[in-house]
Amino acid sequence: MGTTQLESVPEPKYWHLKTVLTEALDSEFSVGEILPNERDLAARFGVARATLRQALEQLELEGRLQRRRGVGTTVAPPRVGVAVGTEQHAWPGAPGDAWQAVDCTTAAPPAAVAGALETGRDEPVHIVRRTRMTHGQSVAAELLYIPESSVPELSAIDAPAGPARVRALLRELQRMELEGQDSAVELGSARADDAKELDRLPGAPVLVVTTRYFAEGRTAALSVATYRADTCRLTFGDSGGVEIHQDPQRRAS
Amino acid sequence: MGTTQLESVPEPKYWHLKTVLTEALDSEFSVGEILPNERDLAARFGVARATLRQALEQLELEGRLQRRRGVGTTVAPPRVGVAVGTEQHAWPGAPGDAWQAVDCTTAAPPAAVAGALETGRDEPVHIVRRTRMTHGQSVAAELLYIPESSVPELSAIDAPAGPARVRALLRELQRMELEGQDSAVELGSARADDAKELDRLPGAPVLVVTTRYFAEGRTAALSVATYRADTCRLTFGDSGGVEIHQDPQRRAS
DNA sequence: CAGTGGTCTAGACCACTAC
DNA sequence: TAGTGGTCTAGACCACTGC
Hints:
The structure is a homodimer.
Chain A (H helix, E strand, L loop, with lengths): L12 H16 L9 H8 L3 H13 L3 E4 L3 E4 L4 E6 L13 E9 L3 H7 L7 E10 L2 E11 L4 H6 L5 H12 L5 E10 L2 H7 L6 E11 L2 E11 L3 E6 L16
Parallel strand pairs in A: 3-10
Antiparallel strand pairs in A: 1-2, 4-5, 5-6, 6-9, 7-8, 8-9
The structure holds a DNA duplex (19 and 19 nucleotides).
């Protein structure tokens, strides 16, 4: 009765480790600095390497660390804010667009895309692959689906391949009046092709932003953009975003 | 020369396993169904349990599975779309608000919050804790920071504690004209208190939505909301969101 | 109580990077 | 070639759920 033992829950080691490392990162390391390797760190903390890795994985997920095979673990810079929802809507490819076209094909859409486009599974769509750069690093890869019926002029003349074709496609889109758009954000893991584009390993956590563009009473285009979750903070709305990390810890100064 | 050996890269086992399981989930299982336990599954696929778990973790991250200690692994329902960016901005607590207050304290703000509020580190803020329910399950936990200077009337009269105090606080806020708001979304991991609120383990992946509310030429309130990343799809914009998962796999029917 | 997922260990080997 | 992080194994024990 009345033992002083509160909190009988033993905190998992990797959780405690993460806390310790977080504090160390805040106080003793600066951005870009390389940490000791995993074997040394594990030994220093007296845990198995797998346990240490569990803590490192979480810190990487939170954007505090960056790990690269063959190189080492470094302290990551703060996440960059990337604007994904502007106040005034605009077609992809409009002036000021941050995206850069990579290539372009025409094929039958995946079932899920066909559903969102409310188009038949048989109607081919143009698929434009684009990437988005910020501060010299690529932060997102996008697949832009445009049904042939959205750009009827283009399919008739069979435009040239490559970048010229992309330009023609987007120019055709912009001739319509954009009636609205909406977006959704969810967590996903990078497919092999996206991972390559983003310089990450397959399965890396990404924020998937799906945007529908409405024109002429239907969905005229669909964009599926995958952003690096470790380095990006997606901003919506009036101004440039907020500088907050989820770090409501109070430090007794 | 010209060996047929393409793709000399050996695909990691857990990655292949994930693919196989994904296909099985699509074709052979229905929502809510329970999978065999991890030890059986690992044996069936001829891998160590840790390897199997790596695949399951990714599937849970993608919202395909739900795992609960002591119970088992079940097939998750599709993610629910939750609206976080309405076209017409509104104060927290406005009519139609999906949030429910839990409690309320007054304290010095964490340093990061003080920065975003552009208030002194010394000025106390009201901290309202709220939760958001959808379809009978809680999907988000929020901390709402309101500087005392944003609700001067309230601090003067020293309102009653509990829910009544929260109502008084939000009522005071709504007397100001909301001049704008902006939001940012980033990936995080659940703190212990949030995890408890969300019925998840600490460290579970969450989408952190940080919203600033502007009034009278400054930031009048700050909301930090953590959404369950496994079950939620955050929607912004005109209509109710998109029904797309990142699943551009084409099935040869 | 039996059965589940969660944590942890002490190894091993592989893929990649840089010198 | 040496050193890094990434994958994988075969165990063990713990915390939690439901009967």
